Amino acid sequence: MSSVRKNQLPLRVPVLIAGGGPVGLAAAMELGRRGVDCAVVEPRMTVSRSRPRCKTLNVRTMEHLRRWGLADRLRALAPLPTSWSQDIVFCTSLTGWELSRFTGVLGLAPEGDRFPELGQQAPQYVLEEILREAVDELDTCRLVLGSRVVAVDQDHEAVSVTVEDRFGDRSTVTADYLIGCDGPRSTVRERIGSRYAGGEALRPNFGMVFESSELMDHVRHGPAVQYWIVNPSAPALVGPLDRSGTWWAIAFGVDRETGEREARRIIDGVAGRPVRADVLSTDPWTARMQIVDRMRDGRVFLAGDAAHLNPPFGGHGLNTGIGDAVDLGWKLAAVLEGWGGAGVLDSYESERRPVQEQVIREATGNMAVLSTELLADNLAAADHAGTGARRAAGARIQETKRAEFHSLDLVLGLHIDASPIVPPDPDGAPDGAPDGERDGERGSHERRARTGARLPHVFLADGRSLYDLFGAGLTLLVRERAPSERAERAIEEAARTRGIPLSVVDLSEATGGPHYSERLGARLLLVRPDQVVGWLGDEAPEQVLPLLATLSGWPQQA
Q1: Which of 86, 346, 501, 509 is deepest in the core (most CB within 10 A)?
Q2: For residue 307, how many other CB atoms are within 10 A of its CB?
Q3: pLDDT at 441
């Protein structure tokens, strides 16, 4: 497809995506790589580098980037390699006393077989630029810049979408489905009558990006991805965007007017001394804890910030939106390819809402203790009182902030409890909580496979990730071939009958070792395109077709 045509708005397209930020582009990647034609409509002609709000890509997002062939590409362009630092420091200032430290944070340190990709610290614009390039490389995708969705109408057969370009000209696109990834001020959400429910924080915050080539030379605490500044003149959170002197900062409890007037004073307070610095951009904001009353209206869906908002503490917001895009992407592709039934799309909200609600709860809990709550007398005193104050502050920091920076149970361990396309799991975790919370044991969700949970990961003997072997549809894992051949044939025949794409992975040959075989807990497992276990057992069920009907969203009698 020519570049000119790829940037033109089509008259008809299977999926139209409103909003070309990371979530909309992720949806396009998921659809386009599955052979589904889609168009992304985005008002911005270029990616903004002035406000890099997201800086944490968690291990689950990096797993998706690996599947799209983009993980190494992103790491090559990320200004801060994972080897540079895996620490978060609490201190009275960058030149002051250290109060506490967390290491191996945010999935930046390897943990054996637990995940195939480390997390990555990278400004949002790095991810967005890579996704733009990757989407543009797919023949199935069109990236229509300088345009926005202004009206939506639908019937039972299609969605009619009015798009306005930057010159004010309007045109109409007919789509089978529309995904609203157009952010907190979503036109799509407004047009389908969906509304946020929830609240806002009472305290303002003042974000900024500044440049100071000398600041890192003054830091007493060594490299870190975040420095939490605990002093009364500038309670803040700050970190490097790169290794050449560009920094981001959040001043807690500072409104727009004060921040604009006192930005330089805040920077000096963070540094603990006067430094030469230039403010590049500012971004006042107030945390919101909100989720829409419904994420779907007929053929129209909401994803990312258009559907839910949470405080940024813990780095979950963008990553949750990427999860929305992946979930909805493979499900729309299954329906459009003909092997997925209506239940697949019905499962989008029932599976994602508990995740989104849990993330909002966790992020809100993280916000309960910020630098402002850690202020205490004598923290900067060079005497016995100061030593005691810093020891007490360090203990409180470890008690109240550890879960924020070591949150892999939340990132990897959420369990699908109620979904029309997942058979009930008698051992499932309650209320969408991570299995580790149910068992009272960190990481217990990864000790064995469970229906409705991410398949425990393993590196194979040849160094590959097990996930690299999965197909685009369902994947049948066979732990022991000899006793399972009859059941394997029955599942393969049922998949052919229903037209479900099925890949078979023989773990007796591509072994992850006897320990991993025990963790699987069954000789046979059916795994969905999103690496979630759909079913497991030692023998095929007596009625294989109804099982596959459930997994693919069809009525069992169909």
Answers
A1: 86
A2: 28
A3: 40
Structure tokens at 329: 């992407």
Query: pTM of the prediction?
Result: 0.93
Q: What is the pLDDT of residue 54?
A: 87
In contact, 49 and 211? CB cutoff 8 Å: no
Tell me the CA end-to-end span of the chain in Å, nearest whole number.
38
DSSP 472-517: SSEEEEES-SGGGHHHHHHHHHHHHHHT--EEEEETTTS---HHHH
Alpha carbons 116 and 111: distance in angstroms, whole number:
9
Which amino acid is it at 181? C
Token reading at 268: 């000096």
pLDDT at 520: 86
CA gyration radius, the chain:
24
Chain mean pLDDT for the chain: 92
* Residue 266 neighbours by CB under 8 Å, 6+ apart: 206, 208, 234, 236, 249, 251, 254, 259
pLDDT at 284 > cutoff 80: yes
Percent of the chain at pLDDT above 90?
84
The average pLDDT across 449-455 equals 94
Please choose, from the candidates 308, 217, 221, 208, the residue with its C-alpha nearest in 3D space to the C-alpha of residue 260: 208
Look up residue 408 and give its amino acid.
L
The amino acid at residue 106 is L
Q: Residues 212, 172: contact at Cβ < 8 Å? A: no
| CA distance linking residue 226 with residue 103, whole number of Å | 11
